Amino acid sequence: MRAPALAGTGTLVRFALRRDRVRLAVWVAVGAGLTAQQSLGSQAFYDTPEALAAYRASVGSNAATIALAGPPVGLDTVAGAVAFEISFTLVLVAALMAMSTTIRHTRADEEAGRTELVRAARVGRHAPLLAGVGLAALGCAAIAVAIGAAGVATGLPAGGSFLLGASVGTAGLVFAAVSAVAAQVSGSARAAYGIVLAVFGVAFAVRAVGDIEGDGVSWLSPIGWAQATHPYSDDRWWPLLLGLAGTGVLLAGARALLDRRDLGAGVMSPRPGAASASRLLGSPWGLAGRLHRGALLGWAGGLVALGAVYGSIAGSVQTLLGDNPAAETFLPALSTAGLVDAYLGVTLGMVVLTTGAYAVSAALRARTEESAGRAEPVLATATSRPAWLGSHAAVALLGSTAVLVAAGTVMGLSAAAATGDPALTGRVLAATLAHLPDVWVFAAVATVLVGVLPRAASATAWGWVAYVVVVTLFAESLDWPSWVDDLSPLAWTPAGPGEPWAAGPSIVLAAVALGLLATGLAGFRRRDLATG
Amino acid sequence: MRTLRGMTSAISVTGLVKTFGATRALDGLDLEVTTGEVHGFLGPNGSGKSTTIRVLLGLLRADTGRVRLLGGDPWADAVALHRRLAYVPGDVTLWPGITGGEAIDLLGRLQGGLDPARRIELLERFDLDPRKKARTYSKGNRQKVALVAALASDAELFVLDEPTSGLDPLMEAVFRDEVRGLRAEGRTVLLSSHILAEAEALCDRVSIIRHGRTVQSGSLAELRHLTRTSITAETARPVTGLDALPGVHDLAGGDGRVRFDVDAEALDAAVRHLSGFGIRALTSAPPTLEELFLRHYGEELAEEQLPEAVRS
Predict the structure, then answer these.
(1) At CA B173, angle to CA B167 and CA B174, rounded to 5?
(2) How do strand B23-34 and strand B9-20 relate by DSSP bridges?
(3) Given an 8 Å threshold on Cβ–Cβ distance, is A528 in contact with B132?
(4) Residues in A touching B58 (Cβ below 8 Å)
(5) Closest Cα of chain B to A266: distance in Å?
(6) Taking every annotated instance into account, which residue ranges of this chain make up the domain ABC transporter (chain B) (predicted)?
(7) Which chain A residues have a beta carbon less than 8 Å from that of B94?
(8) Among partner residues A281, A294, A377, which is closest to B87 by beta-carbon distance?
(9) Mind listing the pLDDT tens digit of every residue in chain A (532 residues)?
């Protein structure tokens, strides 16, 4: 006789797997793909002992890289370099997969009222939680095997590859257990996600400080446990036990919390909000500001951090790539003097692309509002169509401008500090400002699609973003025809600070953005509201 | 705008057609709402009520037909007209992270301002906690948010799309009371519903639509002429010959008891005929809108379903 509290777990796991098979497959494919890509890239890049030695010398002393990646161990082999460069990203992927899977099947279901329906059947109190964690564990196991297989398939040692996979999978498991606790503590799935991401952030910070100082503080972080296995060098399996033990303790805690709360409630009671709206919330502009606030701050924080990291690496670029011929495929038109400039031009392009993605997501928020039926009550008031769509477009334009300027400023400051060349601050900022019309085009493309092709807007806008990313990354190295390039705003703007700014392209891009925005607003005024 | 009776018209729709691809959602719909009346807009689900309302609000554009709202064109003059009306959608969706109180203020301010004293009074009457985030509200509570925002405004015209779906009977009573208050103040209400008791309790006139077309329109008294009254009678002697009278339907009974439905114009003759047998007890039930509905749609449905039943 099985424990009644667990009755129905098997059925729920099968059902959850049925709901999530595509999502999980995508997560697993991402993990395997990142591993294979890093493995092939590193093997091509550090193809000589000299290249590897230069890499080791540069990375081993660079605090920013260590903070981002992990402890600099095993860098005397290419396989070790692969583990160093990719392990944190893989842990992030596994943690996000574990978090979303666990919370989706526990708190989110409970919030939507589905758990009530399920629990009213012959399903035990602990079954939904165990099923959610169980599915996440299946996902972690799959991602572990996939990473190991990707390593082996690309020619890395089998033992280390599967240890890397197991380390990542175990870290994912720990975050599944953290999510299980968060799902009990908070009454809303959104807040539970916030708790898990905060825990992940703390774990990352603890590990970063510990790895820079080398004082063992990293043993306090689950991410540190995963990286303490040292795949491809020491090949230690025992740190995995720390992750398993941590998972066990957290799950016991989640279970205890679950036994002490009512269905639908959290341990933390929700704070009551404002009984009346502030003065700001009284116009479409105020509403848009309120709706976009959180996402804008999140993107700004992420992009400023990205700028800081890219800038800080500028100092080691010269030593890192100076005598590596393979670098030419990644950083075109190298000259020794222009090396840092070229590096900053390429990385600034990444910052611009990411900001462009923010601009698209912000402009598409209008479409989300419309299809969810939340535009209807607003447009039934004395709010005009252009004001409503314009408020979202304005946030996309102004928000992406602010984000890009902030990220560019921090990148310039960070690059200046890392290279000891104070002039870089101004030069990077100037190059950033030259890219502003690019991100305006991103916002405008998404807005015109919302205005004219509402039902296809999201897919088309993101398809175009993906196209621009591919063109930016590969067009030059793959020798594609020039018209392929012309559909990307980034191709028109000089990739400063190495290249001189020209007014012509910026004016044309700004005019294109303006024309698209006007078309979008006019189109939205003429069409039916498309709910659903 | 003046109608023949000299009363101004708040809403005037003639021959409205709206298609979505191959679907003809509205197929020549007519609707006339006089200023100051509570007008019931009745029809089964999917008959085109919400589509009509969205055209009236300028959210959808009419393909053909003439649509006037408060003397203006709802598509071209949307913003100016919306200052004078308040709307409650049939399915209220709110912003998950914004509290009910904030949403009420926002919608009220966007519409042109709301009366703070009325807001407090309505929150109390509808028993709504304005400090909760919208994601924690039930359907009924989201409905209340939209109702409070609309009712606290100073609109001339209230467009209410199935406003009581999700409200419990107590809150429904509060809602009815509020609508009666609006009428007493001379405001116009267009109330769409498929709950017929609601329309019976509140409406001066109703329009009944089906498949995007108006099938009947008029006051309840006018519509009752088209319907049958149910009669149950006990008589001293067994009733004979009733089935020979024109306008008598569904006759049943025996043992001195008889039950039948009778058309309005045949009522007098039927009662005279009954009295010849010595009436001991007589109950007559006025037709409800349910019966009116059933008669309108029930017979057509039966005809439509017949060939399918034969085929299967």
Answers:
(1) 85
(2) antiparallel
(3) no
(4) 379
(5) 13
(6) 11-236
(7) 374
(8) A377
(9) 457 888 888 889 998 999 999 999 999 999 999 899 889 888 888 888 888 888 887 777 677 678 778 898 888 899 999 999 899 989 999 999 999 999 999 998 888 778 888 888 888 889 999 999 999 999 999 999 999 999 999 999 999 999 999 999 999 999 999 999 999 988 788 888 888 988 998 898 889 888 878 888 899 999 999 999 999 999 999 999 999 999 999 999 999 999 888 887 777 767 788 888 888 898 999 999 999 998 899 889 889 988 988 888 787 665 555 555 555 544 444 454 477 888 888 889 889 999 999 999 999 999 999 998 999 999 999 999 999 999 999 999 999 999 999 999 999 999 998 888 899 999 999 999 999 999 999 999 999 999 999 999 999 999 999 888 888 876 665 666 777 777 888 888 877 777 788 888 899 999 999 999 999 999 999 999 998 7
- Chain A residues near residue B75 by CB distance under 8 angstroms: none
**Token digits of residue B246:** 């024109």
User: Would you call B94 an interface residue with chain A, using a CB distance cutoff of 8 Å?
Assistant: yes
Chain B partners of A273 at a C-beta cutoff of 8 Å?
98-99, 101-102, 131-133
Contacts of B105 in chain A (CB under 8 A): 276-277, 281-282
B112: nearest CA partner in chain A? A382
Beta carbons of B101 and A274 less than 8 Å apart: yes
Q: How confident is the model at residue B289 (pLDDT cuts 50, 70, 90)?
A: low
Q: Where do the domains of chain B lie? A: 9-221, 228-286
A269-281 burial, b for 16+ CB within 10 Å, e for fewer?
Answer: ebeebebebeeeb
The model's pLDDT over A293-323, given as tens digits with 9 standing for 90+, comes to: 988 998 898 899 889 888 887 876 655 555 5
Q: Which residues contact B106 (CB under 8 A, 6 or more apart)?
A: A277, A281, A282, A286, A287, B98
Nearest to A355 by CA among A298, A412, A311, A309: A298
What interhelical angle do A339-371 and A436-452 show, nearest 10?
Answer: 20
CATH superfamily for domain B9-221: P-loop containing nucleotide triphosphate hydrolases (3.40.50.300)
Closest residue in A to B146 (Cα–Cα):
A377
Instruction: Give the distance from residue B28's alpha carbon to the nearest chain A alpha carbon, in angstroms.
Output: 19
The answer to whether residue A422 neighbours chain B at the CB level (below 8 Å) is no
Pick from A277, A380, A528: which is nearest to B101 by CB?
A277
The ipTM of this complex is: 0.81
Residue A363's contacts (CB-CB under 8 Å, 6 or more residues apart) are: A392, A393, A396, A442, A443, A444, A446, A447, A450, A461
Contacts of A430 (CB under 8 A, 6+ apart): A496, A497, A501
Task: Kindly list the residues from chain A whose CB atom is less than 8 angstroms away from the CB atom of residue B87.
Answer: 377, 380-381
| Per-residue pLDDT at A159 | 95
Chain B CB contacts of A382 below 8 Å: 79-80, 82-83, 110-112
| pLDDT tens for each residue of A378-408 | 999 999 999 999 999 999 999 999 999 999 9
CATH H-level, domain B228-286: superfamily: ACT domain (3.30.70.260)
B59: nearest CB among A273, A287, A379: A379
Bridging pattern class, strands B213-219 and B228-235: unpaired
Q: Cβ B82–A281 below 8 Å, yes or no?
A: no
Q: What is the pLDDT of residues A241-261, one digit of tens each?
A: 999 999 999 999 999 999 888
Q: Do B107 and A275 touch (CB under 8 A)?
A: no
Q: How is chain A split into domains, by residue range?
A: 4-259, 284-526
Residue B54: list chain A partners with CB under 8 A.
376, 529
Is the CB of residue B65 less than 8 Å from the CB of residue B27? no
Query: Rounded to whole angstroms, how far apart are CA atoms B122 and B171?
Result: 11
B120 touches chain A (CB under 8 A): no
Q: Is B105 in the A-facing interface, judged by CB distances under 8 Å?
A: yes
Q: Is A443 helix (H, G, I), strand (E, B) or coil?
A: helix
